[in-house]
Amino acid sequence: MANLPLFRDPWAKREAWRRHPVFSNRSMFSSMFPGFGIAVVAFTAYVIADNFYGKIQVEEHKPKH
């Protein structure tokens, strides 16, 4: 019983959920764009592969003099 916080505000118990880590700014921002990091990595890999493949295709179609 001695470890329990002393609530002087009658509404403090009802407002305590707002200080839970799930509702922190970092948690809210990371859950705002789910999958964004994976999408950036996948798009970057696609662009690199497309550029590499495009260079190979251009070299194959160059006329030889």
Shape: rod-shaped
Rounded radius of gyration (Å): 28 Å
Question: How many alpha or pi helices?
Answer: 3
Q: How many β-strand runs?
A: 0
Query: What's the story with the biggest beta sheet?
Result: none
Q: What is the CA–CA distance across the termini?
A: 92 Å
Low-confidence runs of at least 5 consecutive residues: none
* Topology as a string of helices (H) and strands (E): HHH
Describe this structure in words.
The chain is mostly helical and 65 residues long. 55% of the residues lie in helices and 0% in strands. It has three helices and no strands. The chain has helices at residues 12-15, 25-30, 36-61. It is rod-shaped, with a radius of gyration of 28 Å. The model has no long low-confidence stretch (mean pLDDT 80).
